[in-house]
């Protein structure tokens, strides 16, 4: 039961990657899969606990890469996953029941304590973001790295999708403290959380749909029903009821619509039940209740497959196998992105060295054209220059006289205004007496 799309062989019945198991019989822990591997330690039966990270098969024999717990006290290594006959009984290497604190691939978890998102599994790889408490991540793959440059102790690392980023983080510390809440929000446990919130006055219920905003549900996605709800024959909420869908059922949305209700609008979905007592039945259901809280969870159960398709978009099919693990796909994406940045930096560096074309042409012309010789002025040229200077001085003097004349004209007293008389017969025509 390794991750889908992984080249890991299916796990022996009862074992799954990401789970914690108690050791059933004494197990030798080796530093590699090869027959010449060195023994690290012997794990004690019915006492030691291991976290299964990877499953491999060589020459028909299955082995598991595990981290003995607590991780800060042990090195990671390989154990046999084959049953061994002791007397008349077959003894498995590990007890089949998983222990608390196990992790699931393709699961969605809530960040419990702030964590750093990095480009690679190494603790010193590039920091690409910080995850704050309360945000959610989708677990894509597992990895292991050492606790530091001087440490050989193992640290569990997980490849996650967080919002719009894909990177590596630690789901737990070396001593086992969880950075992610070990509750898979894609499991039926989300229904239990919803019920508990309903009993506590419902103040913390999720109200994902806001009138006038985009719908958090979309056609083609698969969601889990949080409450039992009636299925109707049409989108109209007054249409006939064709059945009910149970809480916890997985439903695939075929079509979305908004219907008008008293006081606003309500999102409704045409669904087909994929998992649950009503499997195969279809109808229209409300996505949110009258008070606005979610009746259908908003977490898409197809998100894992969608993310894997997005991760492959920029990779040629010839560059990576079709069954490559998410960790391998991400490693190639990081490599391609690094090469792209390096190529861009080189291009910018080369462009900075190039002189602009106009400067280049000017420099070439200056180098190619011989300097124009400076000619000494002849006697004729000197006489012409002296004549021009004399004429310019005369013109300047004339202009000055004109300016002085205009100024004197402006200084003359203005004539008294003319007075008209009523009796124009006695008017004096030739003097300025005013009569």
Overall residue-averaged pLDDT value: 85
Q: How large a portion of the residues is in β-strands, by DSSP E?
A: 25-35%
CATH superfamily of the domain at 104-186 and 302-330: SH3 Domains
From N to C, what is the helix and strand string?
Answer: EEEEEEEEEEEEEEHEEEEEEHHHH
CATH architecture term of the domain at 104-186 and 302-330: Roll
**Poorly predicted spans:** 1-11, 421-426
Distance between the termini: 130 Å
The number of strands is 20
Helix content: 10-25%
Could you name the CATH class of the domain at 104-186 and 302-330?
Mainly Beta
Tell me the radius of gyration.
44 Å
> Main sheet: which strands, in order across?
1-4-5-6
Task: Tell me about the largest β-sheet.
Answer: 4 strands, antiparallel
| CATH-defined topology of the domain at 104-186 and 302-330 | SH3 type barrels
| SS class | alpha+beta
Shape: flat
Figure out the total of helices.
5
Summarize the structure.
The protein has 435 residues and is an alpha+beta fold. The protein has helices spanning 189-199, 303-311, 326-353, 357-368, 379-411; strands spanning 20-22, 27-30, 39-43, 49-58, 61-68, 77-80, 84-86, 89-91, 108-110, 115-118, 127-131, 136-148, 151-162, 165-169, 222-224, 229-232, 241-245, 250-261, 264-275, 282-286. The chain is built from five helices and 20 strands.
């Amino acid at each position: 039961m390794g991750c889908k799309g992984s080249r890991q062989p299916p796990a022996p019945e009862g074992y799954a990657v990401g789970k914690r198991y108690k050791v059933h019989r004494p197990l030798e822990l080796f530093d590699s899969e090869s027959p010449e591997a060195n023994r690290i330690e012997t794990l004690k039966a019915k006492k030691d606990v291991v976290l299964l990270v990877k499953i491999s098969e060589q020459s028909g024999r299955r082995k598991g890469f595990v981290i003995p717990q607590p991780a800060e006290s042990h090195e990671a290594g390989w154990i046999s996953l084959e049953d061994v006959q002791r007397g008349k009984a077959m003894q498995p290497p590990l007890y089949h029941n998983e222990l608390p604190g196990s992790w699931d691939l393709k699961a969605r978890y809530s960040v419990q304590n702030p964590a750093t998102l990095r480009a690679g599994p190494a603790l010193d790889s590039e920091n690409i973001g910080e995850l704050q408490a309360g945000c959610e991540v989708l677990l894509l793959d597992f990895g292991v790295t050492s606790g530091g440059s001087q440490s050989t102790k193992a640290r569990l690392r997980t490849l996650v999708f967080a919002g719009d980023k894909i990177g590596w983080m630690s789901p737990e510390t070396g001593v086992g403290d969880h950075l992610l809440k070990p509750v898979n929000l894609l499991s039926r446990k989300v229904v239990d959380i919803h019920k508990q919130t309903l009993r506590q006055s419902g103040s913390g219920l999720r109200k994902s749909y806001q009138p006038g905003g985009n719908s958090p549900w979309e056609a083609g996605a698969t969601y889990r029903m949080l409450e039992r709800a009636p299925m109707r024959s049409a989108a109209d909420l007054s249409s006939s009821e064709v059945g009910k869908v149970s809480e916890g059922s997985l439903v695939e949305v075929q079509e979305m619509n908004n219907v008008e209700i008293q006081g606003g609008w309500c999102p409704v979905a045409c669904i087909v039940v994929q998992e649950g007592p009503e499997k195969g039945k279809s109808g229209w259901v409300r996505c949110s209740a009258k008070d606005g809280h979610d009746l259908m969870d908003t977490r898409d159960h197809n998100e894992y497959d969608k993310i894997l398709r997005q991760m492959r978009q920029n990779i040629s099919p010839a560059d990576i196998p079709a069954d490559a693990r998410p960790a391998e796909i991400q490693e190639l994406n990081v490599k391609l992105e690094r090469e792209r940045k390096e190529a861009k930096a080189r291009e910018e560096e080369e462009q900075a060295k190039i002189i602009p074309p106009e400067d280049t042409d000017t420099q070439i012309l200056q180098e190619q054209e011989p300097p124009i010789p400076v000619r000494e002025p002849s006697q004729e040229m000197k006489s012409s220059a002296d004549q021009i200077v004399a004429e310019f001085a005369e013109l300047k003097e004339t202009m000055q006289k004109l300016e002085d004349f205009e100024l004197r004209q402006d200084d003359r007293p203005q004539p008294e205004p003319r007075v008209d008389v009523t009796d124009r017969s006695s008017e004096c025509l030739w003097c300025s007496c005013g009569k």
